[in-house]
């Protein structure tokens, strides 16, 4: 990550940096700034573990895909409601263990942000999540590699 971006201390400043970078034809820097914004948002939410932080980053990255798709800031409201009711880890478990894939994973994959999918987070921290969530994640990720 560019040193200038590492020093940015708020998501709003990251978004301004990203807009300026796009205007100068530097999509690479814009992407880094938007990723930094997800880090800062996850930190400010109050995650108590690295797994929780990365799960939150996944949600913020998904919201970024929604912003690009809809042309305006869009909140992943159902996901946030589930987090309020069940906590971060249990919400990720529930989302991944549904019979159908999480809505964000294709959007993240299409934007080259597959590492932010819940399934990828689960496989980085299998000891934190349910056995079922780990198995489902393995199956999905192996099918994505064929895409």
Number of helices: 9
Overall strand count = 0
* Share in β-strands: under 5%
Which parts are unreliable, with pLDDT below 50 for 5 consecutive residues or more? Answer: none
Derived from helix and strand composition plus strand pairing, the structural class reads mainly alpha
Averaged pLDDT, please?
86
What overall geometry do the principal axes of the alpha carbons give?
Answer: globular
- Please report the distance between the alpha carbons of the first and last residues: 27 Å
Order of helix and strand elements from N to C terminus? HHHHHHHHH
Helix content: over 70%
Please state the CA-atom Rg, rounded to the nearest Å: 15 Å
Care to describe what's here?
The protein is mainly alpha-helical and 147 residues long. The chain has 2 domains: 45 residues, no CATH class; 97 residues, no CATH class. The protein contains 9 helices and no strands. The longest helix is centred in the middle third of the chain and has 21 residues.
In short:
It contains 9 helices and no strands.
Descriptive tags:
147 residues, mainly alpha, 9 helices
Please specify the SSE layout and strand pairing.
Elements: H1 3-6, H2 11-23, H3 27-45, H4 50-70, H5 77-86, H6 88-96, H7 103-110, H8 118-124, H9 131-144
């Amino acid at each position: 990550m560019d040193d200038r971006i590492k020093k940015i201390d708020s998501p709003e400043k990251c978004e301004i940096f990203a807009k300026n970078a796009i205007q100068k034809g530097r999509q690479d820097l814009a992407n880094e700034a938007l990723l930094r914004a997800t880090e800062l948002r996850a930190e400010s939410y109050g995650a108590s573990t690295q797994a929780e932080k990365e799960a939150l980053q996944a949600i913020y990255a998904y919201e970024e895909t929604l912003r690009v798709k809809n042309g305006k800031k869009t909140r992943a409201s159902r996901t946030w409601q589930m987090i309020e009711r069940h906590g971060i880890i249990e919400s990720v478990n529930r989302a991944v263990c549904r019979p159908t894939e999480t809505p964000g994973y294709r959007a993240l994959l299409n934007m080259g942000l597959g590492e932010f999918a819940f399934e990828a987070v689960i496989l980085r921290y299998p000891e934190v999540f349910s056995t079922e969530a780990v198995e489902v994640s393995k199956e999905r990720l192996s099918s994505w590699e064929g895409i």
